Amino acid sequence: MEALIAKDVTKRYAQHTALDKVTITIPEKTIFGLLGPNGAGKTTLIRIINQIINHDEGEIIIFGEKLKPGHVEQIGYLPEERGLYKKMKVGDQLLYLAQLKGLSRKDALAKIKIWLEKFDIKDWWNKKVEDLSKGMAQKVQFISTVLHEPKLIILDEPFSGFDPVNAQLITEKILELKEQGSTIIFSTHRMETVESLCDHIALINKSKKILEGPKKQVKEQYRSNTFIVEHRGNHFNLAAEKYELKGQVVIEDNLFSSTIQAKGSIKGNQLIRDLIDITDVYSFQEKLPTMADIFISLVKGDGDEALKKHLQEV
Amino acid sequence: MNKVWLIIQREFLIRVRKKSFLIATILVPLLVPGILGGLIYVAVKEAESAKPDTVMILDESGQFNLDSTKNTKRFHFVPMLVALEHAKKAYNETKDFALLYVPKFDINKPEGLVIYTQENPSIEKIGDLETILQDRVRDLKLQEYKIDKEVLKNLKTKINLKQINLSKSGEEKSSNSGILYGMGFILGIMIYIFVLVYGIQIMQGVIDEKTSKVVEVIVSSVKPFQLMLGKIVGIAAVGVLQFLIWIVLITFLSSSVLGYFGLKMPQKQAMEEVTKKIQDEDVKQAMQQQQSNVQVNELLANIGEIPFGKIAFVFVFYFLGGYLLYGALFAAVGSAVESIQESQQFQFPITLPLLIGYFGLFMFVLRDPHGPVSFWLSVIPFTSPVAMVGRIAFDVPAWQLALSMVMLIAGFIFTTWVAGRIYRVGILMTGTKVNWKVMAKWFMISE
Fold first, then answer.
1. Is A71 left (phi over 0), alpha (psi -120 to 50) or beta?
2. Are the C-beta atoms of residues B434 and B331 closer than 8 Å to each other?
3. Residues of A in contact with B439 (CB under 8 A)
4. Does the predicted TM-score (pTM) go above 0.90?
């Protein structure tokens, strides 16, 4: 079953259209990367899913049901602009937020204890939020997001404000939550996070979805038939009608790394076959586009042409 | 609804647990009578210890005979027997209060009297001097007309009208305009202050939530309207609690203070008086024969006949109604701005009707409680909280009270609806320059 399906979701404001017929399918128990430049409409979509604002057209289906007010209890939301009540104590605050998400007082208390132990911050209960450092407050906010065991967790730039140690800790918790069956929507600019964590991605630009699918498939789609070959000796000539040598660097004495793009329908195997005859092949790997490559080229230019051109330049 | 209840609880508890709440709740009942008592004490002491002012008097007419034998508590007179020019010079060398110059005059048309002073004297002092001079002229006239002072004294008769309201059913109620005026005055001002103070608390709370960004987390759990409602009701509960504590504390304190001086609370005494009257007609008659006591007793009886229960109910109703009506508007303003400073441009326009009610209280309601302006001020929801509470002591017809209450309820439902529509958009808007037009646009945005 799909955790969330958005069908032709449109949101208009007086001056502009924030979302233009956006259709996205988020499979259950995955980490879904919602990508896009600032102002593309990600936050609008997230707010619509959270029922903070309403959409003008289209439909949202969540766990097989049409989105309705009761669904807020199944969603955990960490907004990009973090915020807690500054004068409230950590314990009271978590209790309040959990109860607003529908937990009973008793359940909430038990779960808060478990989470504070997980993060090793049991003694924070009576601390006021204004006395915490930024990173500490972020931890509290993360706990408040997942405390009610939501089936759908929406994290907007979850790692901003965390040091590498805590970022690692949060990553572990996110993966744990996925293991336990939660679906996680990630909205981020950090491509290395997307690269390492996301299973699926969607890219929104200028209010429109321009790319969607499993990460692997997306990368596959944007392959440019380019290979990186390490070889000894560089005295060879490739047939110019079949291959193009895009670059060559010396790694060490007589060991070279060449970037070769195959033309037309020529596959990697064919290139290996051709290379074996003329040089001493040390390693061979296909050069796949990184998410950053795909993101930048799609957002900067207009579609596939630009992407290919960009990849050729890299 | 359960969630609104959670919000109400939080808003209530965070405020009640604050030290400032505790301090304000305990200090106000101590301070208000304390300050009043202190001021009265100082004023009395000052009047007692004030040295009389010396007035040099140059009486060319020779008719006033103001000399040290005519000294009063406030003025000592020093007669001068030189020409005006010399008198002025002499006066300037002293630190005396004034030099009074009286030329020859016709007692039927006293003109040309001048007072020279070194500083600007208070109107009060000049008035007192004028009274002394007028009395003197009157005495001269009495002599001229050959009227005996004693005869004149006997001609004077004092009449106090006893006020009785005759209701349609023929029931008689005595009343006292002075007491009613005082009550209307105090209650009206209290409503005005409370609505403003608690309204601003709502606004402050909304601004805090918006600037700390916590609002986005909250509205992912509850509807913005629920959040607004919870906040408004929670703060109202704080206000009501504070009232109750004040009433209990003030009653307790004043009865123990009065008890210390061997007095009873006026209401309590009046109640006892009234019940005694009913129980024992003879005693009542006996009491009425004690002429000296009649007026005091009547005053106390009048206080006893003021329907305190009804007034308290009306007061709480109009406090809550006015608070809800204006509180919603304060919430809307809070949602639109990002700081208290920024909110000031909106605060004045929304509190203007309240201010009109406040001035209307003095200009119309208390002077003519049943006139048309008073009627409209106490029926229109925006001014009725102040105006009706000021008017209620004057026995407002039941239909007018009912109409005003229904209008007030309709009024706050309306403002809450308007405010809710602005609020839901405003709390998520940051970095926009807000004016009335922008708010109107937010209001128009469909759900």
1. alpha
2. no
3. none
4. no
What CATH number did the domain enclosing A60 receive? 3.40.50.300
Q: Each residue of B350-398: pLDDT tens digit?
A: 889 989 998 898 888 888 888 888 899 999 999 999 999 888 877 788 8
Q: Looking at the structure, do residues A145 and A256 belong to the same domain, yes or no?
A: no
* CATH code assigned at B74: 3.40.190.10
Same structural domain for residues B200 and B106? Answer: no
Query: DSSP secondary-structure letter at A124?
Result: G
Residue A217 pLDDT: 86
Which ipTM value was assigned to this complex? Answer: 0.82
Do B341 and B186 meet the contact criterion of CB atoms below 8 Å apart?
Answer: no
Domain count of the fold of chain A: 2
Q: And the tokens for A281?
A: 């092949």
SS3 A261: strand
At B194, which amino acid appears? Answer: F
Do A189 and A261 belong to one domain? no
Both B88 and B141 in a single domain? yes
Q: In chain B, how many domains are there?
A: 2
Structural domain for B81, as ranges: 52-151
What is the torsion angle, in degrees rounded to the nearest 10, for the CA atoms of residue B121, residue B122, residue B125 and residue B129? 60
Chain A residues in contact with B220 by the CB 8 A cut-off are: 50-52, 72, 75, 77, 79
Residue of A96, A140, A141 for testing the chain B interface, max B β-carbons within 10 Å:
A96
The verdict on a CB contact (< 8 Å) between A51 and B215 is no
Q: Are residues A171 and A259 in the same domain?
A: no
Range of the domain at A253: 224-286
Contact flag B3-A50 (C-beta cutoff 8 Å) = no
